[in-house]
Design brief:
single chain; 226 residues; alpha+beta; SH3 type barrels; five-stranded antiparallel β-sheet; 48% helix
């Protein structure tokens, strides 16, 4: 009887944890994001700051303001004049030595992860990195320029290795095509796997392609496809 009761309590307790932990984590992260966004209200003139007229602070006003500003910037940039202004600002930043590196790198990362990710990340693969016997998940992003491979022998590919749990940062390396092991998982599933430190996808859902098997259409690992 005691053993049965203990089993029941353990099962329902674990079930409760599975429900509450993701919810609590989301609420915690949202609270941080909203709190940080609300600080943007401090930059508004007092006459336009809602806290000046309201008897109490309403959480999330800064977040709404931030979304509105992003939308307005996108709306203005979409027309010819706005695009010229943004291009001019970008040109100015690109002329400043230190700022140029930060601006260009940030712009390329954002463009990759928001607009061009499906086109830029051609294939998910296992890479033996950072040493023999240790493997990590990487994304094939294409073939390197001749400038990078002129002193190398063999056929190399660009590989982006993201970090856990933040896949927007990572490492860029060149790997020989022969040393890349393609994986039968989608780009989205690979990102879930990386962000969750391997907990989002079970082992039986990941299958290595057989040696010499067909790679994805248009993949650099199979240049003749497509």
């Amino acid at each position: 009887m005691v053993k049965w009761l203990r089993s029941i309590l353990k099962r329902y307790f674990l079930t409760g944890l599975l429900v509450l932990i993701p919810i609590s984590l989301c609420i915690y992260i949202l609270n941080i994001v909203i709190s940080l966004a609300d600080k943007f209200l401090r930059f508004l003139p007092l006459r336009y700051n809602p806290d000046t007229y309201l008897p109490f602070h309403i959480p999330g006003l800064g977040f709404i303001l931030g979304v509105a500003v992003i939308f307005l910037v996108g709306l203005v940039t979409a027309n010819f004049v706005g695009k010229r202004v943004v291009d001019g600002i970008g040109y100015l930043f690109a002329r400043i030595p230190l700022v140029r590196t930060i601006y260009t790198g940030a712009k390329e990362v954002v463009q990759t992860f928001i607009h061009d990710r499906p086109a830029q990340f051609h294939q998910v693969a296992l890479i033996e990195y950072p040493r023999k016997g240790i493997y990590c998940i990487g994304f094939v992003t294409g073939s390197p320029s001749v400038v990078l491979t002129s002193e190398l022998r063999g056929d190399f590919l660009n590989i982006f290795i993201p970090t856990t749990p933040n896949p927007t940062s990572g490492f860029y390396i060149l790997v020989s095509r022969e040393e890349i092991i393609p994986l039968n998982i989608s780009i989205e599933d690979a990102f879930k796997l990386i962000m969750s430190a391997g907990m989002s996808i079970s082992a039986n859902q990941i299958e290595l392609r057989e040696e010499g098997g067909p790679e994805g259409k248009g993949s650099p690992l199979n240049p003749k496809a497509g």
